[in-house]
């Protein structure tokens, strides 16, 4: 069962002060069974663990969204924030939240990585039963639009978890079926398609990495999973249980069996062994990065930034404190198709600027903010999510 019901592994903060808090792992205990141990930060480049964010023994402060109040959960059930069987994790970078689900439960939990407070999202949309392996939700990722998406083992539920204000809503987007070309490499059968994890790309599609090492591209419009190929360069018995995109645009995979991590080129599916810890039991991985993202980098200069990244009042602040930046600069905003939807000229005086910019006529969605100097040199690329 462990080969197909992948545990949950969270990767958060880098191991040194300069590392970004953007890669997380859900780690299990060194046992043959799936037993949750902790969510921790991972240095994805070097394969080294960082800070433990939340563990099986941490005090759990749980707030129920439906009951509008704090709750005390029974830790001896599958329906609690520290359940032993977990296999899904996503990172909401706009709110610094880790989102996850126990494997045998329809409960959704949102853990704030800083405050350690947990929001329980109870729902009747996710139809999960402990005795039905097909229904177990084992793959989760943050999409290009900022929403969280999850898929159960058999693809019979494709869930969207969206947030508006402080409330979360769950929507079932439908059944994902095999593309006609898949043949024996089926997305919906245990041997080839179950378990694993998923990543999102910048174009709104998803890639599911099954426990068997098969990769499927999921079209959200057609609700079909097309077999892309099988990962090469990993041991024959390697169980792929976690996947997430790193800052270089490559996919990092990990195993629940206690094995090293690998970096996978999404174009060739060739895996490269990563250094570092070689015996972590990783049930799931999560990061803020998207595959095929042309704007994978953020700040070119350390002392320039925009905030907030989740915009609900049509305003962002541009802050510059760098004497190397002078004169006129240009702010451009692009949608996910690459269309320039807004531009504005700004002026930096004595290396300093602190100005609000009104985002006129931008509909809800994800955008790229690009700032260049007078010569066209890129000073900053950063994604924002505009909400109503």
TrEMBL record:
It comes from the Bacteria. Keywords: Signal. Residues 1-19 form the signal peptide. Residues 307-384 form the Secretion system C-terminal sorting domain. The keyword Signal applies. InterPro entries: Quinoprotein_ADH-like_sf, Secre_tail. NCBIfam families: Por_Secre_tail (TIGR04183). This is Por secretion system C-terminal sorting domain-containing protein.
